[in-house]
Write a structure and sequence with these properties.
Layout: E1 7-11, H1 16-31, E2 35-40, H2 45-51, E3 54-57, H3 79-100, E4 108-112, H4 117-125, E5 129-133, H5 142-146, E6 164-166, E7 183-185, E8 207-211, H6 220-230, E9 236-240, E10 257-260, H7 265-271, E11 272-277
Parallel strand pairs: 1-2, 1-4, 2-3, 4-5, 5-6, 6-7, 8-9, 8-11, 9-10
Length: 280
């Protein structure tokens, strides 16, 4: 049983789709009187701090604002390539966090399913853990279908079969009928992200958000096609294109299209009548 003021730490990987779903939980736990820490790289430190956590910094192998040249997996990659990327992160981050938490080990580890270092550390510290999935969970038969292992850390820890809290609805889970009963689908836990800034619609036109997320967005031809499709339609098009290509590659855009590296999605979606997004 945790005390009323336990030290709870969160661990994930430095990608928006993995960090953002945890922030609402951080804020709620801090409000309940717990001390919350968040292990992440410098790119996401302000988000964790804004949610109320103290930050435990580490150097990631993933692309970052200071090292965008590392690139990312190309769309259409196979599962074996993806597994290697996350496994490399595990190997790099594990010793860093062992050192960073020395003398201030948490009472509970809350972690994203792809943060393979987290359950290893929890086991070493002898503390309980809670596994969170911000997206589809592994279903029975996924390894045979993809041809790649999905256990990124030490298989002896049984990473796949532990109970899991899932922050998407069961209705959108891939092969939901093949997901074990240990997964609890609770849906999203949304919280304001003040560091994202604000956005207000400049007119009363219907708004559509166009985004490919934070990882697979180096697709100027896709964004150009969307801009052309909405030209002259009376829609306000808000494009979030990421940081992997120069907006100048899009050429001259219609006046109803605005382009940003990132947008405060909660603000935009509150005004939007539609969204064109990458699935997954």
């Amino acid at each position: 049983m945790l005390s009323e003021s336990a030290h709870i730490t969160f661990m994930t990987v430095p990608l928006h789709g993995h960090v953002n779903p945890l922030l609402g939980m951080v804020t709620e736990l801090v409000a309940r009187g717990h001390r919350v820490s968040f292990a992440i790289n410098d790119d996401f430190a302000s988000l964790a701090k804004d949610a109320g956590a103290s930050v435990v910094l580490y150097e990631s192998t993933f692309p970052s604002s200071s090292s965008p040249e590392r690139g990312w997996l190309e769309a259409g990659h196979d599962a074996a390539q993806a597994a290697k990327v996350f496994r490399d992160e595990f190997v790099s981050v594990l010793p860093q966090l062992e050192t960073a938490y020395a003398g201030d080990e948490p009472d509970l580890v809350v972690y994203d399913t792809v943060a393979a270092h987290a359950p290893v550390l929890a086991a070493a510290w002898g503390v309980p853990e809670v596994q969170i999935s911000p997206t589809h969970v592994f279903y029975d038969g996924v390894e045979a279908e993809t041809g790649a292992t999905v256990a990124l850390g030490d298989r002896r820890l049984g990473l796949r079969r532990k109970p899991c809290v899932v922050t998407i609805p069961r209705s959108v889970q891939l092969h939901a009928d093949r997901v074990g009963g240990g997964c609890q689908f609770v849906g999203p836990i949304v919280s304001p992200r003040r560091v994202d800034g604000t956005w207000t619609a400049p007119d009363d036109w219907p708004v559509v958000l166009v985004s490919l997320g934070s990882a697979y967005n180096k697709r100027p031809e896709f964004f150009s096609a969307c801009a052309a499709a909405f030209e002259g339609t009376g829609w306000r098009v808000v494009m979030s294109i990421g940081r992997f290509f120069d907006p100048a590659e899009l050429g001259e855009l219609p006046p109803n299209v605005e382009v940003h590296p990132w947008v405060p999605q909660l603000d935009v979606l509150a005004s939007a009548k539609g969204a064109c997004r990458r699935a997954g």
